[in-house]
Amino acid sequence: MRLPSRAVFAAVFVACAGLIGLAMYMQHELGLEPCPMCILQRYAFMAVALVALVAAIHGPGKLGVRIYGGLALLFALAGAGTSIRHSYLQRFPDGSLSCGADLDFLINNFSLAQALPKMFAGTGECSKVQWRMLGLSIPEWALVWYLIFAVVAIWLIVRKPS
């Protein structure tokens, strides 16, 4: 049995929405404040979710599936890169990092070209592990999900149309 691409995109959307909902629950109910890199990872999940939602509604043909799959792959890889950097900061914290400026301050006071490098440099907040499940921190779990979404996107791109 062949899975329709529309159903696959819908499943990716539901998974992303669930992950964003979990992030909001952890922030507002458990009191885990997100660092700038956490926010960037949320944006990447939202971008994957938006692409998947549009694709699920559109129900594209084979070229459209490849285009939507490519966009989802691009956003998943961007999120994975942020997660890798965040995980690295948590595994190997730099003692010189302080709890620097939050994302709103960076965006409001610097151009995007100046703010992005500062976000990826990380802060003391980014190196603090506030939560673990099965030995993995939040950015490590985000990386697992980004890799799942990347594999699904690649599968959608390369599978033969029926």
TrEMBL record:
One of its GO terms (biological process) is protein folding. It comes from the Bacteria. Residues 1-8, 61-66, 160-162 are cytoplasmic. SUPFAM superfamilies: DsbB-like. The chain crosses the membrane at residues 7-27, 39-58, 65-84, 141-158. The keyword Transcription regulation does not apply. Pfam families: DsbB. InterPro entries: DiS_bond_form_DsbB/BdbC (IPR003752), Disulphide_bond_form_DsbB (IPR022920), DsbB (IPR050183), DsbB-like_sf (IPR023380). GO terms for molecular function: electron transfer activity; protein-disulfide reductase activity. GO terms for cellular component: plasma membrane. It is a multi-pass membrane protein. Disulfide bonds join C35-C38. Residues 26-43 are periplasmic. Keywords: Cell inner membrane, Cell membrane, Chaperone, Disulfide bond, Electron transport, Membrane, Oxidoreductase, Redox-active center, Transmembrane, Transmembrane helix, Transport. It is found in: Cell inner membrane; Cell membrane. HAMAP family: DsbB (MF_00286). Belongs to the DsbB family. Required for disulfide bond formation in some periplasmic proteins. Acts by oxidizing the DsbA protein. This is Disulfide bond formation protein B. It comes from Usitatibacter palustris. The gene is dsbB.
